Every structure is written in structure tokens, then in C-alpha cells.
Amino acid sequence: IPDLLSEEEVDGVRKAVRSEVRELGLLDNDENCWSFFMNRVRQQLKVVLCMSPVGNSLRLHARRFPALLNCTTLDWFQEWPLEALQSVSFKFLQDIPSIQ
């Protein structure tokens, strides 16, 4: 995405990865540092898209962007009963002291 980061932010990213680039035996110039960062982002980036199967939205998006179906993993979830949602949320929240 063009201009997502300011030049100052890009410099900060390069500085943050400079030592790791050196550890790989690469020259730690700006280009190598940025390439290292971008490769790491590509390897680790996860995106979650939530769409309802009701209506035309999912079908239209799949037609316009075929990679949504061809290059991703679809996890299809059915509606959960209220009791199940409450039980799972309670399990995760019970260990947080500030939430009673």
C-alpha cells in the first residue's frame, strides 16, 4: 500500500531488523533490510475475513476476487447456541482478575 508508512516509520523498521539481516550474513543496507522485513510480513501475515453466506455478498466477492476461494482456507461456522457462547467466554475470562 503506497504511503502506508511515513519515511520516518520506514527508517524505524529498517533499524529494527538491521541486526537480524547482519546475522544472516547479508549486507545491512536499506534495500536488504526492507526486503527482509517485507518477506517476514508475507510469511507471518494472517487476515481474517468474515462474511455472511446469507444474501449475495459472499457470492459477489468470490466472483470479483477468485483468490478468496482459490488461495485461502475457508472455515465455515454454524450458529452457536447462547449457552455455548457464554460457557466459552466464561472459560476465557475467568482468569482475568479485573473481570468478575
From TrEMBL:
Name of protein: Dynein heavy chain AAA module D4 domain-containing protein
Gene3D superfamilies, sorted: P-loop containing nucleotide triphosphate hydrolases
Residue intervals of the Dynein heavy chain AAA module D4 domain: 1-96
UniProt organism field: Cirrhinus mrigala
Coiled-coil portions: none
Pfam families tied to this protein: AAA_8
Family: Belongs to the dynein heavy chain family.
